[in-house]
Amino acid sequence: MSKSVALHTLGCKLNFSETSSMGRMLENDGFIKKEFDEVADVYVINTCSVTDNADKECRMLVRRIQRKAPEAMVVITGCYAQLKPKEIAAIPGVDLVLGAAEKFNISHHLAAISKGDATKICSCDIEDVNTFTASFSKNDRTRTFLKVQDGCDYNCSFCTIPMARGKSRSDSIANVVANVNELAASGIKEIVLTGVNLGDFTPPSPLKGELEKVNAKSLKGDVDNKENFFSLIKELDNIEGIERYRISSIEPNLLTNEIIEFVSNSKRFMPHFHIPLQSGSNKILGAMRRRYKRELYAERVGLIKTLMPHCCIGVDVIVGFPGETDEDFRETFDFLHSLDISYLHVFTYSERDNTHALTLKPVVPIATRNERNKQLRNLSYQKLQYFTQQHIGETRKVLFEKQDKNNMMEGFTDNYIKITAPFNKEWVNNITTWTI
User: What is the pLDDT of residues 266-314, one digit of tens each?
Assistant: First the structure.
């Protein structure tokens, strides 16, 4: 008799794509997929560990499963599982903890354990994680998240991601193209390219196996001209069947002028960028170990808006980082206020184990962090209202999603303005002309 499985994602679009791929793997192995709020034989929680809230939410979900289905197997994977496997294993009800190298071997591990066994931890040193596993969401929503890159070689002082996901590694362009063709054949209209450090996309070199046989120095020119993220998006732009691409998030120092110029002339890449800033103070950016200054960020935004005045620009920012004074925060606020951006994702700094930021002083009081978060969220609301109002009366292309919410449906314009309309099944997964 087939077992049922329910999966839940905490965190980012990258996690969402991986959860979807794990679900398909389990279905291929005979599991029946259920919704997470239904009773199932196995529950899989794919975790994030960017903030303390993600950790707390994981523990809360396990307790909920215990009440609803006490005999069910509970599997925890993702970043939290890699960073703190023993802490997770100690949560009552958890049966299996899968680290970064084992999440896609989930069927194998489930076959080897039974409910009531001692909690099993399958993890490894993050330095040993060096393979790339492609993943994408499919049949979950109109927009699909396609992972093309994983891991990060940057060491920002506040971040645990390199410890949770390992070194930067990427898919090959040929594999990405094959996945895109598969998604196009299934009727997907929009793909969001995702990764931990997407702009660092560097496909495995075809020369890798040959360098031991020949003089690498003679090939230096070829190695220097290796393929990169710009190569990828140029290739994807030529594929028939996919009408829209979005770039999920890209570091400002890796968002080159040629990428911006390419998007401005592309028919398939949407006028929408999400560019992490984290702070508008060069002093704080230095303490964060970011690889740019605010002047470069302003330069990038300026070029985007010159070439694409209608472009939507989202920004990540962290408040309450150690050492952030009132003056530093005011500098960030004023800088963001001055930029022609569309919305903010505001994160309140939270202490993470084994990060350099823990050594930095003075610590910003929690109440101050929360107040700064509130101020920037208010600014974000104003920015989004202003951006939307600029386009009222315009006719733009909207891709409506499948959800039917109280006889209403939602979709996004090319430049990421959310549109709500009465439900019309003929509009689902079709590009519709809409007057804002």
Answer: 999 999 999 999 999 999 999 999 999 999 999 999 999 999 999 999 9
Distance CA 413, CA 72 (A): 42
Tell me which residue of 177, 288, 303, 300 sits closest to 240, measured CA to CA.
177
Query: Which tens digit of pLDDT belongs to each residue from 189-230?
Result: 999 999 999 999 999 876 544 443 444 333 333 444 578 999
Distance between CA 362 and CA 355 in Å, rounded? Answer: 16
Could you give the CA distance from residue 176 to residue 235 in angstroms, rounded to a whole number?
A: 10
Contact 315, 276 (CB under 8 A): yes
Q: Is the pTM of this model over 0.85?
A: yes
Using CB atoms within 10 A of its CB, is residue 144 exposed (0-12), middle (13-18) or buried (19+)?
buried
